[in-house]
Amino acid sequence: MTCKVRTVEVNAVRLKELREDRALSTRELAKLAGVHHHTVLNLENRRGNAHPRTVRKLAAALGVEPRELRRRTADDGQ
Asked: CA-CA distance, 3 to 74, in Å (whole number)?
C-alpha cells in the first residue's frame, strides 16, 4: 500500500519577490523556515512542488499567509 503525498504548486515568482523584498538570500530564508536551501532554490526555479507543511514554514518565515505562495490556476477562478 502506498501513500500519496499531496503537494502544492508554489508561485515561484512570488516566492522570490517576497524573499528579495526582505533582503534575504535563499540560505537565510531556508534557515528561518527550517528547510534545506535546495528546497528554496528548487521552488524558485520551478523544479517541483512543495509539501503543504513546507509552504506553511516558508510563509511564516516571510510573514505572509500560505495562500500567498500558492500558484493560482484557472481552476481557482482567478
From this structure: 28
What span, in angstroms and rounded, lies between the C-alpha atoms of 8 and 14? 14
Which domains are present in the chain?
12-70 (1.10.260.40)
- Amino acid code (one letter) for 18: L
pLDDT (tens, 9 = 90+) of the chain, 78 residues, equals 566 778 999 999 999 999 999 999 999 999 999 999 999 999 999 999 999 999 999 999 999 999 999 987 654 444
Q: CB-side exposure of 44: number of CA atoms within 13 Å? A: 17
77 phi/psi in degrees, rounded to 5? 75, 20
Cell 510563509, located at residue: 59
pTM greater than the 0.85 cutoff:
yes
Asked whether 61 and 28 are in contact (CB, 8 A), the reply is no
